[in-house]
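Notes from the 1:1 (GR / supervisor)

We went over the backlog. Supervisor wanted to see one worked example end to end before approving the batch request, so GR pasted a single chain during the call. The sequence is below; no edits were made to it. Supervisor asked that the structure be written out right there so they could see what the output format looks like.
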Amino acid sequence: MTAGSASEGSSTTTPPPDRHGIGLRWRARYYDAAGHQHSRQFARRIDAQRWLDSVTTAVGTGGYVNPAQSMVDVGTVAEQWLANKIKLKPTTRARYENALSVHGLPRWAARPLASVEHGEIQAWLAELARQNNPAHR
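Structure output shown during the call:
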């Protein structure tokens, strides 16, 4: 008898396709607070699990930023922030507008929100403090 014959009870198998095991085979997905599904594909299961764990942790700790919203530039966010400040005295609004136009927007307006890192902001604030207080130079 030959291997794979019907009398042995085995079935014939087809060889795997040429791309078997190649490519992005693992999909990790989650739902954001608004109920929208987000997913990403990975070549290895461990990479998918690590990404999903990091997103889940960020959502749980409040550090999550929606990828679509993170590409908005700082200037747009600053405009929205100031527009939503509806109960400001005129002098306070003028101070905020001045601080943004003189200090914040020249440095950060064109930067995507996601690209701004904490260390950059700390260094910028330290430089502003040195410029405004000559004793710290």
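Supervisor's comment: Strands lie at 26-31, 37-42.
Batch request approved.
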